[in-house]
Design goal:
- The structure is a homodimer of 866-residue chains.
- Chain A is of the alpha/beta class and 866 residues long.
- The first copy, chain A, is built from 35 helices and 31 strands.
- In chain A, the strands form six sheets. The first copy, chain A, has an eight-stranded mixed sheet with strand order 12-22-21-14-15-16-17-13. In chain A, strands 24-25-26-27-28-29-30-31 form an eight-stranded parallel barrel, surrounded by six helices. In chain A, strands 1-2-5-3-4 form a five-stranded antiparallel sheet.
- In chain A, helix 14 crosses helix 20, helix 15 packs antiparallel against helix 35 and helix 23 crosses helix 27.
- In chain A, 53% of the residues are buried.
- The interface between A and B is large, with 48 and 48 residues.
Chain lengths: 866, 866
């Protein structure tokens, strides 16, 4: 087993072994780009170390050999007084985990050779600054000495010397460094003077960082396998902090917020890499290099262009200029806002850099989700009170209560609150708070700060560098431009403009542009599974069709009974003996309902579910309403109360609902079917040829389906005779009880189509009531007993087995049986992938999830082709 | 296809083709017994007729040939004036359906040859009596002319002639017969004079009777396949009504009530068969023949003994003596009371007539159930007021409200009432009422009347021939020995003694005798599946062990918290912060509980389920109780109400219960496990080596089981260390959610045993709440959508699939995994058969069902051996 690869030995395809960073460093080296030489210790070595808990001898030998080669390549050496070799040690896993693991710079310095470095660079303060940084990072990363212990030494000495640390003299640095050694001693450690020992410790620390808490949380959130491990990149140092012709920067080949095809980035003169990322100093725009170091800038532009073409995607580059000479330290596919992702994906196709398939694969479901995220209503925005402005770090609009810590954010969100996390700056420790918040506001940091990168990745609205916000965390207050806000105050944050407003502003959806339409059309052309929507109101049906739904997978009919007159008729039907009068009223309402719905959906299929909820859901509650209803229906209060008592249920979810109502009170289903068929006939007469699809819910036994279907068919035939017309129609069943899956072959014989109701199926399979799950799901997720909420992400291991069984059994009887999925998981990408695998014909989801579903089914089709 | 078999052509093994009656007539013919000659039309011919709706030509030819053979065999002929052949036409299906289908006697008579019969027998009134009976039966069976139309003619003429029909003269019979012909005309029918035509009509009518309402109800109740059809037996008539040396009788080779090994039966001088069965005349005991016709009696005794030995079971015989000569008309295995069934089964083994296996197979689960039926408490019986006495037709004791019609019986039972059906006599039309009643009382009829036979078959307590009861059905009153009782009055009926009492008498279980113990021991020796009981109270545990439970499959722990002090401690734990104080109290109660339980079960396995119900079940309801609890626990009413509101659930069945409580509040499970282990340790120290089996309920995910099991193990290890002892224990899981079945392989890796909770599994699989199912299950059963209540009989098609899957998945990981079933279907015979087939180790049921389960598992073992 080879544990160490020089940059000259690897390439971009070796990400799983060398990590993303290492593979790309090797690739750039292969392309002849100015990459400081170095080598990568493999992910396999990491896992072997983590499993055995010890550092293999052979690994140590390989590393020593690689260091010797590096010394040869650079003409420098550890401990050399003339050509001192310093290295950076950086983690780099297969999948990018920004800031999640540890980095050590300037490794190789010690009490002796810091002097050599000072002499070599002719810059005492630079050398000592490097050394004090090494001591800090090494102490933190290798020995877990709290950063604050070093910080408080800095603060103490800044006070003593009455100057900022960046202005310390050599002597002052020596005193500071002495105090750092004392910090080590207090913690019962000693800083190793031997560079090889430093390296060994550092590599082990990076290995161990794979299993630190925040890395684990990140992997769990991003579903990255714990068994991958991280590689370690050892690279000879170049110094962006070596004077005014030096600096370090981060750049994107296109604008990561807007997608504009123009270099975008930031640069800090006389700084090391982590100064940019940490957001401690606010950097200059990239363009500023053009005036300071025009040659370096030109070279950088060329390299950026080359890398984008090479990787066929927008790149995120880290670079350092050391005394006028450009070095590229990293390239990777850049994270971007959803808007930018869409524009870049489509532009790369237009520019013939990428294929449509690649464009589709590049888009993330979260990006689409973000595009569908709300913006502030323009007219409301005009009336709003502007509080402050910062950098527009991640687009979108959000409203929430101010919180100052990630922990508090998590707490309030657990109670159903929406929060805006307001912090000086964010760090990887805040990851769970960032996830929980609706929006993020930071006082410091630029467009590439931690907060900005993470927020864009998650599609969370974010404003950074809002320096007007003076936070007093301990007091839980923030002063912004003379306003004093405390925890719990509501603010509105516009991540697209960087503006922050007092109070709540109404939001609306952003308009979907041509790029969006193009991408969606490419998706539809490639997809094998259709995307329907769950919708029944005119508004929802319009939204669904606007978002490109190819049909309606679930039109519920119960909401149609909640208008005042309808509810009265429904109650009359339930509570009185004037049932036919009540039904006559209901039928006239329903005929209009279905006529209007068909008018919108036209030739697109629409599956109408017959009445599903238990009758008590339509009855009044509370004395006043009971009295009102009794009076309206000429009943006594006692009669209404008796009916209420008779219809009350202990477990309504498992009660008298769905087809069970169709069995015990057939006239309500007959009324609905009459309305459906009559309204469809009206359309046929007007030239619109509609095939109504009628769905019977909550079937457990074939006998139920046979009985109710027969009754409906008889009713339909009566209508056909009365109207002297016959039109095609279908009667299918919802599969939403475990038993329905188990006897799906029997059901298929009697059904024109199946539609999985995954919500109820999940409730029954788990024995989870959605109304009550809140009492324990928090504990369950915290203790890792449930990875996902099974109502959001299909439980493939359990519920999925039943679904797959039902598909197989159904198709064993009817090979061409139309099978769909409605329910919330119908819009969830990994769930959709599973549904496609087992052969469903369509997924149906809420209108707002239709575009995500269209993307996902297209991606699945591409994956299955390749 | 041969449609007709002469009695000389068949044998006892041909029941499916010839029906039970036909096959046994053939067998007796083969044995050389005095059976009047005849032939059988097959069940296949019946089904072919019912399917095609027409009488096949070939069938007609075969029948005509058989009649000619019959004429040859008897030396008689249709329409002969010297040797007139008359036949009976009787249905006879594969499985006995007593009285459910139709019979016609004396077929072949007509206006002409009735005179020949009169001359031949030298008995005018005999001949005309036969003819008028034929006209009545034929009119009823073939043309569905209401019996009452004939009866009212009889009544009219009895009034006119001022005498009973049995005393009519030839002339009076002629007038009656003339009036019967008019009844035919009024109904637009003519009685066919041609005997061949009579026969054709009669056979078709018997075929059609297979599908009459009461036959269908009977088949559905007894799970007899509708596709079997009935055979038709055509047999030359012998006449029990031909004078004082003639008669007809019914006999059992042993006493069908007590099982005593002594001929038991009844006999009517000068009567035809249906006179005995209909119960219109009260017959004499069988022994009375001995004095009247000693030779015939001797012959009958010999034949009875021979047939019992031949069939190796108690026989039920029908016979006729025609002018001193004995004919056997039917033999079949006799229906018997449970007590008799048990005694006969055991006696036949003792007498070496039958094997133990045959004895076990002969016993029905219903018999065992009946044996466990109550008797009146002796001391209470002494104080009771005797109302009247009748014949002890079917043993047992029951209490109920008087009803006078089968219909009313059904109605009241549907409302949860217990009823006693009081009737003059019963007929097959009453079958549903007989099923519904707790007890049956008839004014007329003997021990072999319809009511008596049916009641014994069903194990319903029955008193017949209680002639003191004068019923006025229209007024809904009954006068008994000067007492006037009306519908709804409560009486107590003792079917073992034939006594009827006013009011309600307390009942208790009958003692189980040596026969019972013998049979049960044979069962246990043969069985492959063990029988455990669901029990936790000391009383239930004792009952279970007395009934031979081999272990305890489910000891619930929630009932243990309902004592006053325990409930207080439980509420303290739920509602207050003094949780450890509450737990300390609970643990001391529970340690005593488990100590006592183990003391009873000793070395038998006992599976203890940890707390299962949601917390709100322990909380107070109603203002007064809430106030009381608040005061007791030093809380405010508002605080208690807030807790109640916080713990309330929409669907408690799918809520925060079972292991979900173990996850969110681990201390309650730890308390229980501590009590279990500590009490077991106490027993070990006292010499009783107990292996506690701890069961975690409501597991859906392996992760839940792993977490909670680990917590319990840690607790147990802590106890072992503190107590300086280690004892064996097991931790298993309940499989009661569909998902648990689907991931049973994952669960098996982490469980020492599985126990299926079929009640909850059925609720979830069907989406049926047991608390709410009452709202529609009636409709479902009436409409035939559900054949059985799935909570009583395992739904093999649906729930059974999940159970089988879980067994296979569990054993795929642990081939020797102990798997049991608790839940009500654990005591249901067809369900047990399924469980045995799929390989469960034990079934566990309520204590009173343990003996039935022991019988059933033994039967299954025998079936699987053969």
């Amino acid at each position: 087993m080879k544990n160490v690869y020089r940059f000259t030995e690897g390439n971009a395809s070796m990400k799983s072994l060398l990590g993303g960073k290492g593979a790309n460093l090797a690739e750039m080296t292969r392309l002849g780009l100015p990459v400081p030489p170095g080598f990568t210790v493999t992910t396999e070595a990491c896992m072997s170390f983590l499993e055995t808990g010890s550092y293999q001898k052979t690994l140590q030998t390989e590393i020593e050999q690689a260091i010797r080669d590096l010394e040869l390549a650079t003409g420098k050496a550890f401990n050399s007084s003339t050509h001192l070799l310093l290295v950076s040690v950086r983690s780099g896993a297969q999948f990018s985990m920004p800031g999640m693991m540890d980095t050590i710079l300037n490794l190789g310095l010690n009490d002796q050779n810091v002097k050599a470095l000072a002499k070599l660079t002719n810059n005492d303060t630079f050398a000592y600054d490097c050394y004090r940084r090494l001591l800090q990072m090494f102490g933190d990363v290798v020995f877990s000495i709290p950063k604050s212990q070093f910080d408080s030494q800095i603060a103490k000495h800044e006070l003593n010397f009455d100057k900022n640390v960046s202005d310390f003299s050599k002597r002052e640095f020596e005193i500071l460094i002495q105090s750092f050694h004392q910090v080590y001693q207090i913690n019962q450690y000693t800083f190793p003077q031997n560079p090889y020992l430093q390296l060994e410790y550092a590599i082990q620390a990076v290995f161990n960082s794979w299993n630190n808490h925040r890395a684990k949380v990140y992997r769990s959130l991003n579903q990255i396998d714990d068994a991958l491990g991280t590689a370690v990149n050892i690279q000879s140092m170049v110094f962006g902090n070596s004077g005014q012709t030096s600096g370090t920067g981060v750049a994107f080949t296109r604008n990561p917020s807007t997608g504009e095809n123009k270099l975008f980035g930031e640069f800090l003169i006389n700084a090391q890499g982590e100064d940019v990322v940490a957001g401690l100093r606010t950097p200059q725009p990239l363009e500023s290099i053009r005036t300071i170091l025009p040659e370096a800038f030109d070279e950088f532009q060329k390299i950026a262009h080359l890398l984008e073409g090479h990787y066929r995607d927008m790149q995120d580059l880290e670079f350092t200029i050391e005394q006028g000479k450009l070095y590229i330290l990293q390239t990777r596919n850049g994270k971007r806002s959803a808007k930018a992702a869409l524009k870049i994906a489509v532009d790369l196709v237009t520019e013939k850099i990428s294929t449509k398939e690649a464009a589709i694969l590049k888009m993330r479901a979260e990006d689409i989700n973000q595009l569908l995220h709300p913006i502030f209503v323009e007219s409301e925005l005009k009336k709003a009170t502007l509080l402050a402005s910062g950098l527009p770090a991640s687009p979108g609009a959000a409203v929430g209560k101010i919180v100052f810590t990630a922990e508090r954010a998590k707490e309030l969100v657990a109670f159903g609150e929406k929060v805006v996390l307001v912090r000086r700056e964010t760090s990887p420790e805040d990851i769970e708070g960032l996830l929980a918040a609706e929006a993020i506001v930071t006082t410091y940091g630029g467009m590439t700060s931690h907060a900005a990168v993470v927020a864009r990745g998650m599609g969370t609205c974010c404003v950074t560098g809002c320096e007007a916000a003076k936070i007093e965390e301990a007091q839980k207050i923030v002063r912004i431009n003379n306003q004093l806000l405390t925890e719990g105050d509501i603010i509105s944050v516009d991540g697209t403009t960087g503006r922050i407003y007092i109070g709540e502003i109404e939001t609306e959806l952003s308009k979907l542009d041509e790029n969006f339409q193009s991408l969606m059309q490419w998706c539809d052309a490639i997809a094998k599974v259709k995307v329907y929507a769950n919708a029944e109101t005119i508004l929802d049906l319009r939204t669904a069709l606007d978002f490109g739904a190819q049909g309606v997978g679930l039109a519920r009919t119960e909401h149609m009974f909640f208008g005042v007159e309808r509810l009265r008729a429904m109650r009359q039907w339930i509570l009185t003996e004037q049932k036919s009068e009540a039904l006559a009223q209901l039928i006239s309402f329903q005929t209009v309902d279905f006529y209007q719905m068909f008018k919108l959906t036209k030739d697109k299929p629409m599956i109408i579910r017959l009445l599903d909820p238990p009758m008590h859901e339509f009855l009044p509650h509370g004395n006043r309403e009971i009295q009102k209803v009794a009076k309206e229906l000429s009943l006594t209060v006692v009669e209404v109360e008796q009916s209420l008592a008779a219809l009350a249920e202990v477990n309504p979810m498992l009660g008298h609902r769905g087809v069970r109502i169709g069995v015990t009170a057939p006239d309500i289903y007959q009324m609905q079917v009459t309305a459906i068929i009559k309204s469809a006939i009206k359309h046929w007469r007007e030239g619109l040829r509609i095939t109504p699809k009628i769905m019977i819910p909550l079937i457990a036994e074939a006998s139920e389906l046979i009985l109710v279907k027969q009754q409906l068919i008889e009713q339909i035939q009566t209508i056909f005779q009365a109207e002297s017309i016959e039109i095609p129609y279908e009667i299918g069943t919802m599969i939403e009880l475990p038993r329905a899956c188990l006897v799906a072959n029997d059901l298929a014989e009697n059904a024109d189509f199946f539609s999985f109701g995954t919500n109820d199926l999940t409730q029954m399979t788990y024995g989870f009531s959605r109304d009550d799950i809140g009492k324990f799901i928090g504990d369950y997720q915290e203790k890792g007993l449930l990875v996902n909420d099974p109502f959001q992400v299909l439980d493939i291991d359990g519920v999925g087995q039943l679904v797959e069984m039902a598909v197989q059994k159904g198709r064993s009887v009817k090979p061409n049986l139309s099978i769909g999925v409605c329910g919330e998981v119908g819009g969830n990408p990994p769930s959709i992938a599973f549904f496609q695998k087992i052969g469903v014909n369509y997924v149906s989801c809420s209108p707002y999830r239709v575009p995500i579903a269209r993307l996902t089914v297209a991606k699945e089709a591409i994956h299955r082709l390749s």
